[in-house]
Amino acid sequence: MNARLALIFVVLLAILGGGALLYYQKETARRPENVSTLGRNLFKDLKAADIAAIRMVEPQATLTVQRKDERWVLAERDGFPADVAKVREFVLQVLALKVGQSEPIGDQDRARLNLDQSGTQVEFAAADGKALGRLIVGKKYFKREVDNPEKARADGRFVALPADLKTVYLVSDPLTQATAKSSEWIDRGSFQVEKVKTLELRYPEGGGWRIERDADNSDWRLAAAKPGEKLDASRANAASYSLSMLELADVAPKDAKDTGLDNPVAIEATTLDGLAYSIKVGKLVQDNYYVTFSSSGTPAKNDKDAERLKKLEERLPREKLLSEYLLLIPKGKLEDTLKKRAELLEKKEDAKKR
After folding, report:
1. Would residue 353 be called left, alpha or beta, if left means φ above 0 and alpha means ψ between -120 and 50 degrees?
2. Helix or strand or coil: residue 2?
3. CA dihedral 150, 152, 158, 161 (to 10 degrees)
């Protein structure tokens, strides 16, 4: 290659290199300014072991889930136990949050996405009360149009950091647990009345009924049955069995008003295991009844079923704790037990078919 060709080749390389550099600069200018945030952890310095409280504030409610000894409890519900699995899952979800997209945002859009005071303010705190991290959880994000956004499971969530309110982040986790509703945090395990021996129900306006049996497989009898009254065995079974399937919908503040428990439906039950329950059922609010109860007795020793005896003894501390709270129990769990006397009787047309 002579000197002339070599010089031409060098000039071409310089031109091509300059063009490539110019192209690179143009492409870089076209990239979003926030490209460096993609995939970044929102809380890179937050550690699960340091978290001793999670406080959630919404326009109409505040809830603090805090660690107490070896348990997690709800501060605004007088230390009612939280579901430890839900607490753990939520903490891990937050620690794993990564930026899927981020954009500058103004006040108007922040309000539209509920990233202002209308959203859920979440704060993580240490045992000494020091704030470890804050997050504002806004509207759900959907990749497609849904009929009912309130109930549909989202594909992600719009969130913001209080330290940088001018930026909105999109994360892929729907963060369904980010709520100040106590019903979404409680341990739903309820007291359960098993192997009922006697069951009596008294209405506040007067009247009621009592059924009883001698053994687990014995027929139910209607106490003080009137001539022509015949107990429907299936309805009696349902009335007693329902008490063994109770679960909590929520726990109410102890100072809740207008519960109806000043004039309740009274349920008295004894079991073949030697336990007794006194249950008060108050007002129906939406789909839940206000309920309080007390229990007494000691499980009868059963040499033939030591495993059941152990199960009953392990359950007693939980029941003692529940008896100190104002509970909310789903309507559907008490419907069969709260039936009127006439509804427990065999219908005349049913009797004729026999």
Report:
1. alpha
2. coil
3. 70
| 246 alpha-carbon distance from chain centroid | 16
Q: Which residues contact 312 (CB under 8 A, 6 or more apart)?
A: 273, 275, 299
State which H helix or E strand residue 236 sits in. Answer: helix 233-241
What is the distance between the alpha carbons of residues 280 and 202, in angstroms, rounded to a whole number?
A: 10
What is the rounded distance in angstroms from the CA atom of residue 346 to the CA atom of residue 350? 7
- What is the percent of the chain with per-residue pLDDT over 90, rounded to a whole number? 78
- Residue 15 φ then ψ, to 5°: -65, -50
Contacts of 308 (CB under 8 A, 6+ apart): 273, 302
Nearest-angstrom CA–CA distance, 338 and 331: 10
pLDDT at 353 (0 to 100): 52
Per-residue pLDDT at 304: 75
What long-range pairs does 201-208 form, CB within 8 A, spacing at least 24? 201/265, 201/266, 201/267, 201/268, 201/337, 201/338, 202/265, 202/266, 202/268, 203/265, 203/340, 204/263, 204/264, 204/265, 207/341, 208/341
Q: If you search the block for the tokens 């390389």, which residue do you land on?
A: 13
- Measured between its terminal Cα atoms, the distance across the chain in Å is 115
What pTM does this model have?
Answer: 0.84
CA distance 326 to 283: 12
Distance between CA 234 and CA 346 in Å, rounded? 9
Q: What is the pLDDT of residues 157-181, one digit of tens each?
A: 999 999 999 999 999 999 999 999 9
